[in-house]
From TrEMBL, chain A:
It comes from Mucilaginibacter phyllosphaerae. The keyword Cell inner membrane does not apply. InterPro entries: 3-oxoacid_CoA-transf_A (IPR012792), CoA_trans_fam_I (IPR004165), CoA_transf_BS (IPR004163), NagB/RpiA_transferase-like (IPR037171). GO terms for molecular function: succinyl-CoA:3-oxo-acid CoA-transferase activity. This is 3-oxoacid CoA-transferase subunit A. Its EC number is 2.8.3.5.
From TrEMBL, chain B:
The lineage of its organism: Bacteria, Pseudomonadati, Bacteroidota, Sphingobacteriia, Sphingobacteriales. Keywords: Transferase. One of its GO terms (molecular function) is succinyl-CoA:3-oxo-acid CoA-transferase activity. It comes from Mucilaginibacter phyllosphaerae. This is 3-oxoacid CoA-transferase subunit B. SMART domains: CoA_trans (SM00882).
Length: 234, 218
């Protein structure tokens, strides 16, 4: 079995206008930056993007927003992205804001083969409008449906050609749950290794969930908020 | 009157030994700087980390290691990394003992609004809705009045809600207040140099004063 493709362009060969994509990453951390660049280059439009954030103006999904390739964003947080906030407030972009835990768990449900979840997040708020509420043990919960995405696009640290993936530090974030949730899952990795080189006890995403994998070159890995302390500080 | 650091210092006193704590963006992040050494706590960052450490030394920033505010951070010995679904799993399952977050408005029955001003500003709720819906111990860190000088402690929130009936305690530049289960802000402490009258003036919601209100010690 070999899931390796030559690069991002081949990985996205059948992503067309109007598709629904899940994109891993938290801010710019663990972002599938190479595949996003290929989507920008290909020019596919009317995309629905499920992603916690939308990058910044000139990086990540922000690039797709700038070129008006996105019809709808499903996210939990849009702060720090002026263009996103502008398109949202002006009504140019359809946006569904949902709680971060709901976003993650709706991905998880898809990967676990469950149609819906119940969560207390959003009860009593506008997030609950039009949704079924169920009471369990005296507390109200919202029913939230599993996501149904055509493609999941994730970034991992290491992967093998069977699609087994390992993430590094907090670049893990949404990537594992999204990898499990796509009908077709594309993984870009910093290091592509042979089967057997990854420790089976420490695989974060089993290869069964991954359909295409490629090695990205020269990761930019931007930092959104560079916070440091001086050597003489505690 | 307290500055932001003062608010953070006062909130740090609410953190007990053995707690797992989630700190929101803004003033809550500063609280980490004032937790006494003898108080053993583990900080949870909802992007997927238990055991968040200080900012890295200059030159040692790791783009793969950030907190929920997208700031570069370090991981302490004994830290654990996990995905976003698991992170909110532990929040929903009430494993996190204390949640500290900012707010635009809090109502006298403990409702909180902090993610949207219709037509003007939309940040998104991020993880706040999940946190306030499940956490049993929520402290809000905020300014007592907004930039227009209007009280942020109200009879009812006017902005879209983040959660209902959930805030237990508020620390502002003027005071520490408990939100009572039956409704109302009970004045617990005054900030140094602040009078009860000043707090009354800045509080639009029902303020409950039982006898002498001590000045806070920070």
């Amino acid at each position: 079995m070999n899931k390796v493709v030559s690069g991002a362009d081949e990985a996205i060969r059948d992503i067309e206008d109007g598709h629904t994509l899940m994109l891993g990453g938290f801010g710019m951390c663990g972002l599938p930056e190479k595949t996003i660049l290929a989507l920008v280059k290909k020019g596919v439009k009317d995309l629905t993007c499920i992603s916690n954030n939308a990058g910044v103006d000139d990086f990540g999904i922000g690039l797709l927003l700038h070129r008006r390739q996105v019809k709808k964003m499903i996210s939990s947080y849009v702060g720090e992205n002026a263009e996103f906030e502008r398109q949202l407030l002006s009504g140019e972009l359809e946006v569904e804001l949902i709680p971060q835990g709901t976003l993650a768990t709706r991905c998880m449900a898809a990967g676990y083969g469950m149609p819906a979840i119940f969560t207390p997040a959003g009860i009593g708020t506008e997030v609950a409008e039009g949704k079924e509420v169920r009471n369990f043990n005296g507390k109200d919960y919202l029913m939230e449906m599993a996501f149904d995405a055509d493609f999941a696009i994730v970034k991992a640290w290491k992967g093998d050609r069977l699609g087994n993936l390992v993430y590094r530090s907090t670049a893990r974030n949404f990537n594992p749950v999204m990898a499990m949730a796509g009908k077709v899952t594309i993984a870009e990795v910093e290091e592509l290794v042979e089967p057997g080189e990854l420790d089976p006890d420490n695989i974060h995403t089993p290869g069964i969930y991954v359909h295409r994998i490629f090695k990205g070159e020269n990761y930019e890995k931007r930092i959104e908020q560079r916070t440091v302390r001086k050597r003489n500080q505690l | 009157m307290l500055d932001k650091e003062g608010i953070a210092k006062r909130i740090a006193k609410e953190i007990k030994d053995g707690y797992y704590v989630n700190l929101g963006i803004g003033i809550p992040t500063l609280v980490a700087n004032y937790i006494p050494d003898e108080v053993d706590v583990i900080l949870q960052s909802e992007n997927g980390l238990l055991g968040m450490g200080l900012f890295p030394f200059e030159g040692e920033e790791d783009p793969d290691t950030i907190n929920a505010g997208k700031q570069t951070i370090t991981r302490l010995p004994g830290s654990a990394v996990f995905d976003s679904a698991l992170s909110f799993g532990m929040i929903r399952a009430k494993k996190v003992n204390l949640t500290i977050l900012g707010a635009m408005e809090v109502s006298e029955n403990g409702d909180i609004a902090n993610w949207k001003i219709p037509g003007k500003m939309v940040k998104g709720m991020g993880g706040a809705m999940d946190l306030v819906a499940s956490a049993e111990n929520i402290i809000v860190a905020m300014q007592h009045v907004n930039k227009a000088g209007e009280s942020k402690l109200l009879p009812n929130c006017t902005l879209p809600l983040t959660g209902v009936n959930c805030v237990k305690k508020i620390v502002t530049e003027l005071a520490v207040l408990d939100v009572l289960p039956q409704g109302g802000f009970r004045l617990v402490e005054r900030a140094p140099g602040v009078t009860v009258e000043e707090i009354k003036k800045a509080t639009a919601g029902k303020l409950i004063i039982d006898g002498e209100v001590p000045e806070m010690v920070i």
